[in-house]
Amino acid sequence: MSQAVPQTRPTRTPRAASWWSGALVGVGVAAFVDETVFHQLLHWHHFYDRSTPEAGLVSDGLFHAFGWFAVVAGLFWFAALRRRAELVTARWVGGLLVGAGAFQLYDGTVQHKLLGLHQIRYDVDLAPYDLAWDVVAVALVVAGVVVGRRDRRAAAGG
Predict the structure, then answer these.
(1) Closest of 84, 77, 65 to residue 21, by C-alpha
(2) How many CB atoms lie within 10 A of CB 153?
(3) 83-101: pLDDT as tens digits
């Protein structure tokens, strides 16, 4: 007769889980804002501009689906943390800001420059656009780190 072994699942600390949940939502929100504003409203570019306009539209649809999947997954995780009373709000908000900024920085450096999938805009001097894009990205990351560390100071009593 075999003895039942209690199954334990590996868990992250509430602080880490809160941060990662926020980061996932942040990535998704940044992708959604990028897709909605720059792809659909302003028509500045598609996710993939190195082919036909039809391929660009398909790539936009896939990109949009990715963004929503990230938001929904992050919010399910958020709800689970709240249900277990484990949500650390400052860490979640910090993760959200870092996730959004990291996505934007990745988009501006890897997708725009290294892979050349698209540019922010065409037929203009890109320098001010690239600078603004990257400055906002870094500002989001820095703000996220600052906000995310608030719970450490509160836990330390100061």
Answers:
(1) 77
(2) 10
(3) 999 999 999 999 999 999 9
Q: How many whole angstroms separate alpha carbon 80 and alpha carbon 135?
A: 34
* Dist. CA 119–CA 113, nearest whole Å: 8
State pTM to two decimals. 0.85
Q: What value does the mean pLDDT take over residues 50-74? A: 91
Angle CA(94)–CA(95)–CA(101) in degrees, nearest 5?
Answer: 95
Matching residue, tokens 């890109």: 126
For the record, the structure tokens of 43 come out as 């028509």
More confident residue, 153 or 28: 28
> Which residue has tokens 């860490």?
91
- Please, are residues 90 and 147 in contact by the beta-carbon 8 Å criterion? yes
Closest CA to 56 of 70, 39, 36: 39
